[in-house]
């Protein structure tokens, strides 16, 4: 038996737009994902989050599923357009009430609520006013953060400001594969800075209203970047992607600086004058932990890549190589070494920052067999390998406090719609029937024994 430390947090994670549905209920207005998913050609099969897993109406049932799993923590996100439909001004009572009920029911079930304030559903009105490339959006976010903290502060244990600002900035405004679907490299860089600023301003707003024991955090999808070969050219490609994928957030948030090489690499695009005096003090407001979402590594070499890119300025310098190994239904390689590499790097670079894996998991082509059971041995193997890597990192002195499995439920997988299933609980979207998969039973056993078998 490979035990995890006592007090280790075992959780599952979800996000509002991916599971809630009820897109027009109780005063909720469209977010950029409502608009984007309604735009033909943006999301596979024309799928939208209008109904999703109908979690808005099935929240108690879903908390019951988690109680059966025995999770200690649940990571959910708050839909900004449910709480503050125009992105400014007073809150909508009914929107906040939904999350208040959720937090109370979680507490009653003995589960710690972990709330993410932004998992990509910007109110459409704020995008119409310029979105994340516009500085004002950071101020709007801080106001919203203060409202939610005022309403839920006594119940939520951990607050995450942003989920994966890399995706929000570079997939949303760079490659355009995520909402709002813009393809403007300068807008993407501006968005990245204003997301850092939004994070810092939100940390200030949260600290001003929260009880002292609340934990404040942010979640990054850090890239485990590897150079294809040890040549100087390939190592330089890896440095560039490390700057654009990792240090663009890590440096402002944890070191109060911009990465100098990133500023130099992108000098043809922008002079970065949108970063104002004092901003980097705000972005580096102290946090209590760092959340890491990890799925697979990124292998790069010197070369070029085509098309609207999430890597501003690197198009003519870097090519992406498929990593070897087995693949998930997303075609992402299964490679837990990348997670180990990230964790040990962060131990060395940020020795005082506790780490939490806020997402890890895999999509496979799951189906219910004639007996109504869902057998997902590949997902169990994926999870076992990644938890093994976490266990090894713990043994090597990495301060990992918890692990949140993505995801509790099959859900709306962004540009892939409902075609990809990440849940450990199967959802039949026609009937909304929930069926725990074999992986759910496996995870419940891991939690119950406090570690991995064997
Ligand atoms: C997370 O995104 C999300 O937080 C979650 O909502 C989502 O459902 C889940 O993961 C599964 O996708 O380097 O350009 O080739 C993870 C998104 C996946 C983004 C890998 C970067 C590689 C893009 N990340 N992806 S690229």
Automatic annotation (TrEMBL):
<dbReference type="InterPro" id="IPR017853">
    <property type="entry name" value="GH"/>
</dbReference>
<dbReference type="InterPro" id="IPR018120">
    <property type="entry name" value="Glyco_hydro_1_AS"/>
</dbReference>
<feature type="active site" description="Nucleophile">
    <location>
        <position position="359"/>
    </location>
</feature>
<dbReference type="InterPro" id="IPR001360">
    <property type="entry name" value="Glyco_hydro_1"/>
</dbReference>
<dbReference type="InterPro" id="IPR017736">
    <property type="entry name" value="Glyco_hydro_1_beta-glucosidase"/>
</dbReference>
<keyword id="KW-0119">Carbohydrate metabolism</keyword>
<keyword id="KW-0624">Polysaccharide degradation</keyword>
<dbReference type="GO" id="GO:0008422">
    <property type="term" value="F:beta-glucosidase activity"/>
</dbReference>
<keyword id="KW-0136">Cellulose degradation</keyword>
<protein>
    <recommendedName>
        <fullName>Beta-glucosidase</fullName>
        <ecNumber>3.2.1.21</ecNumber>
    </recommendedName>
</protein>
<comment type="similarity">
    <text>Belongs to the glycosyl hydrolase 1 family.</text>
</comment>
<keyword id="KW-0326">Glycosidase</keyword>
<dbReference type="InterPro" id="IPR033132">
    <property type="entry name" value="GH_1_N_CS"/>
</dbReference>
<dbReference type="Pfam" id="PF00232">
    <property type="entry name" value="Glyco_hydro_1"/>
</dbReference>
<keyword id="KW-0378">Hydrolase</keyword>
């Amino acid at each position: 038996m490979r035990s995890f430390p006592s007090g280790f947090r075992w959780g599952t994670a979800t996000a509002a737009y991916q599971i809630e549905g009820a897109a027009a209920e109780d005063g909720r207005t469209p977010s950029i994902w409502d608009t984007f998913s309604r735009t033909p050609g943006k999301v596979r099969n024309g799928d939208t989050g209008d109904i999703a897993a109908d979690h808005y109406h099935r929240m108690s049932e879903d908390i019951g599923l988690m109680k059966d799993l025995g999770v200690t923590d649940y990571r959910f996100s708050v839909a900004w357009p449910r709480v503050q439909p125009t992105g400014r001004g007073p809150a909508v009572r009914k929107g906040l009430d939904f999350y208040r009920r959720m937090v109370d029911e979680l507490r009653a079930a003995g589960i710690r609520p972990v709330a993410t304030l932004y998992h990509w559903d910007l109110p459409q009105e704020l995008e119409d006013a310029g979105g994340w490339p516009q500085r004002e959006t950071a101020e709007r976010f801080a106001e919203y953060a203060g409202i939610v903290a005022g309403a839920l502060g006594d119940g939520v244990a951990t607050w995450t400001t942003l989920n994966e600002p890399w995706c929000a900035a570079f997939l949303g405004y760079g490659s355009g594969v995520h909402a709002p679907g813009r393809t403007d490299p300068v807008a993407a860089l501006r968005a990245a800075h204003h997301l850092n600023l939004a994070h810092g301003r939100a940390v200030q707003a949260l600290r001003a209203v929260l009880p002292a024991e609340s934990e404040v955090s942010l979640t990054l999808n850090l890239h485990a970047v590897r150079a294809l070969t040890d040549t100087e050219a390939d190592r330089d490609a890896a440095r560039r992607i490390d700057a654009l994928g990792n240090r663009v957030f890590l440096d402002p948030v944890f070191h109060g600086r911009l990465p100098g090489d990133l500023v130099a690499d992108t000098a043809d695009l922008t002079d970065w004058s949108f970063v104002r005096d004092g901003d980097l003090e705000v972005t580096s407001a102290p946090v209590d932990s760092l959340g890491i979402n990890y799925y697979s590594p990124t292998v790069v070499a010197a070369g070029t890549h085509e098309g609207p890119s999430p890597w501003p300025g690197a198009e003519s310098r870097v090519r992406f190589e498929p990593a070897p190994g087995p693949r998930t239904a997303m075609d992402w390689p299964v490679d837990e070494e990348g997670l180990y590499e990230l964790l040990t790097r962060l131990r060395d670079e940020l020795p005082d920052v506790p780490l939490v894996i806020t997402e890890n998991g895999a999509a496979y082509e799951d189906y219910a067999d004639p007996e109504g059971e869902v057998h997902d041995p590949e997902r169990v193997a994926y999870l076992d390998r990644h938890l093994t890597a976490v266990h090894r990192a713990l043994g090597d002195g990495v301060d990992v406090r918890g692990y949140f499995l993505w995801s509790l439920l099959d859900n709306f997988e962004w540009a892939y719609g409902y075609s990809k299933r990440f849940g450990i609980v199967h959802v039949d979207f026609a009937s909304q029937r929930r069926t725990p998969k074999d992986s759910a039973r496996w995870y419940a056993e891991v939690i119950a024994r406090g570690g991995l078998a064997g």
